[in-house]
Amino acid sequence: MTDASLPENSAAAPAHRSLNTVDARTRKRNRAEARFRAYGIAAVATGLVFLVILLGSILFNGVGAFQQTFIKVPVYLDPAKLDKSGERDIEAIKKVSTFGYTPLIQQGLFDVVQAAGIETPLAKPGDMKQMISPSAAAQVRDTVIENPDLIGQTVDFRILASSRVDGYLKDRVFREDVVRDKNIDVEHLDIVDGLVAAGIVVKEFNLTFITGADASESRPEQAGLGVSILGSFFMMLVVLALSLPIGVAASIYLEEFAPKNRFTDLIEVNISNLAAVPSIVFGILGLAVFIQFAHLPQSAPLVGGLTLTLMTLPTIVISTRASLKSVPPSIRDAALGVGASKMQAVFHHVLPMAMPGILTGTIIGLAQALGETAPLLLIGMVGYIATNYPDGLASGFMDPNSAMPAQIFEWAKRADPAYYERAWGGIIILLVFLMTMNIIAIILRRRFERRW
Amino acid sequence: MSYFKMTASTLAIAAVSATAAAARDNVQVAGSSTVLPYASIVAEAFGENFDFPTPVVESGGSSSGLKRFCEGVGENTIDIANASRAIREKEIKACAEAGVTDIIEVRIGYDGIVFASQIDGPGFTAFEPADWYNALAPKVLKDGELVDNPYTMWSEFNADLPAVEIAAFIPGTKHGTREVFEEKVLAHGCEATGAMKAMEEAGMDEDSIEDACISVRTDGRSIDIDGDYTETLARIDSNAEGVGVFGLAFYENNTDKLKVATMSGVAPSTETIASGEYPVSRPLFFYVKKAHIGVIPGLKEFAEFFVSDEIAGPDGPLANYGLVSDPELAMTQAKIADEVTMGEGM
User: Mind telling me which InterPro entries this protein's record contains (chain A) (predicted)?
Assistant: First the structure.
């Protein structure tokens, strides 16, 4: 069609041809361009909307995990119960288990409720059980064992409220649902309302969520991400210590020294392909090689780190080679020209200039490894309750531990809905780590990168 | 160049010190994912109350736990295997071959299996084993004849059930729960509907009758869930007409989303399961390696603590979480105190 109309136009046009007059064809082209721009804006806008929805829902669901409900309770440390002999003998005091402390805390809370003048049909201290976290008894017991002289006094404690009370204050647990829930009753919620008004039940920032250990399923209010952050940290140490030297050495050899032949081409293609291999494949490789063949301990950050190293290596090799390539050949030629050996030229001149790019690639590779879950599923880093802090370097590498994404996965599986909230909260922490690493990478690149 | 050497030597040092720190001072537990929450509750309380470190609890399923348990005796094998079923003869044999001969079997209590649907969904309030057989079996008895399962609605075989399409979410075959479901629901339903008798009359042998009774239809109305109960819950959440199989503890934590049905006229609760009235329940176990007692510090104390009245009794934290306390707990306690292994003094 255009072919047919063309000669006609060119025949008529020459007389009036001006760059300022917009003829039909130009208008058409301009319209096409405007349309294309609109499509582009629409695509970007859709992406942004999804990003906002994603981040919004993560924040909306997870921000609750950073707040926790506490109860301020004065507990009378009854000598008749805690130290029957009266000799303040530490061994005798240790014999009293947490079950001996629970009634004292319940009594303390009961007295507070009475003193606040809250009317309630719950007439026994034992009825307060559903409002208090099981962790409170251990908290009081630890304080007493640390300082036995407190026995006989009334001490103020800030204890965790149970997950149901916490959920009620966070609009996760509702009155109408509580009727069928045997873990808490409406009467308890009435008391909670009264205590909130009296300033005894408070919602405060929850540091334990960031630094604490995982907890059992009966007390989600106590669970934290701290131990698995350490697990991730040790894994990243392994990944860094292995993949950076191996990756950099491999790329320097391939880029600067290796002859260009079929064999190195094959290696090159395979490295690019490895970067695209699904991570679960590395997981099953790790399971077969490191656990079943080499008999390294299951669930250990060392094994996790080794597996993730396999995954990170191609990323680092590719980015290192790219940044080596971007160093102009004149630098090499100049070094060689004044008599440097090839190795001197590479290590004294090329490598330092490529370093910002290599570091950026490494950090991005690490960030990728940090968020990776699939390989960890296979080497047993889920289904493990990370309650112990590693004591020392060796135990940090060898003792079973979880990792941040694995811990989030674990929480999302648990029965108590309070853990669901913590899973979202965990995602926020993970995202903060990833963003920090990416920002560091960007800063490094901005500050040290040289352009020619 | 020097930093290559440095990283290499740091790694070497780490590896060496790791192997040097071999002597294990914590109890290691692995096994059933059903027992995992209970074991972790106990481990946590144990760490709080004793000077021993908190035991390490891992999951992975009853079978894989027992397999690791039977790998042998020594510090790099686990001390306790959790199981949601009793240990099998085959596993005892495998254990014995690896040198694990003295095993203490500990029953910690019972776990109930409940049938629940969406809280605002259709009125599934009462089931009989026969209903489940009719709904899920590949072949059912209709008008005195064994036919390929023709039912598409629950109300077609039991007018008391709602007239909605059959969609049942049952645990996958790798779950211990499936075995209980087959034995205590499908097999009973097979008998109750008369299908078993019809099969006998048709001249089938005992084994194939047993298999036919516990198999499920494959036309998509019975859905195997291989994941956790959370996955079943998500399915029920998105399908108002679905019915799912859950553990009692899971249901009790999610009463705001699920409603439970009675089985044979009995509502599931810790009380009805303990008394044996509610028919679908199973015992939970853990197995202790006797050879490790006295070698691994805290092992016997942990086992004793697990079944103590304070923990596993009717008012303890385990019962609070949903475990049905064992009425014969005192016997179990005595068994651990005397370290009675399987096969002796039973």
Answer: DUF3333, MetI-like, MetI-like_sf, Phosphate_PstA
Among the three residues B266, B281, B296, which one is the final residue of a domain in this structure?
A: B281
**Concatenated DSSP letters for B172-186?**
-TTSHHHHHHIIIII
Contact at CB, A299 and B20, closer than 8 angstroms? no
Query: Which residues on chain A are in Cβ contact (under 8 Å) with B228?
Result: 413
CATH class of this structure's domain A226-448:
mainly alpha
Interface contact B47, partner A, CB < 8 A: yes
Tell whether B248 and B118 lie within a shared domain. yes
Angle CA A34–A37–A39, to nearest 5: 110
Tokens of A234: 């040790």
Which chain B residues are within 8 Å of A134, Cβ to Cβ? Answer: 45, 317
> Does residue B308 fall inside a structural domain?
yes
Structural domain count, chain B:
2
**pLDDT for A142-184, tens place per residue?**
898 888 888 888 999 999 999 889 999 988 888 888 877 778 8
Exposure letters B323-343 (e unless 16+ CB within 10 A, then b)? bbbbeebeebbebbeeebbbe
Stretches where chain A sits below pLDDT 50 are 1-2, 4-7, 10-13
Torsion angle in degrees (nearest 10) through CA of B242, B244, B248, B250? -80
Q: Are residues B212 and B255 in the same domain?
A: yes
Nearest residue, CB atoms, B7 vs list A245, A385, A416: A245
Domain of residue B67, CATH code: 3.40.190.10
Please count the residues of chain B: 346
A205 touches chain B (CB under 8 A): no
Whole-Å CA distances, A144 to A21, A91, A106: 92, 12, 17
Question: What mean pLDDT value characterizes chain B?
Answer: 84
- Say whether residue B75 is in contact with chain A using an 8 A CB cutoff: no
Give me the total of CB pairs closer than 8 Å, taking one residue from chain A and one from chain B. Answer: 118
Model ipTM? 0.74
The pLDDT score that the predictor gives to residue B7 is 52
Residue B18's pLDDT is 43
Residues B133 and B234 in one domain: yes
Residues of A in contact with B17 (CB under 8 A): 393-394
Instruction: Say if the Cβ atoms of B7 and A302 lie within 8 Å.
Output: no
Is B20 a member of any domain?
no
What is the DSSP code (8-state) at residue A295? -
Domain boundaries, chain A: 67-205, 226-448
Residues B129 and B261 occupy one common structural domain: yes
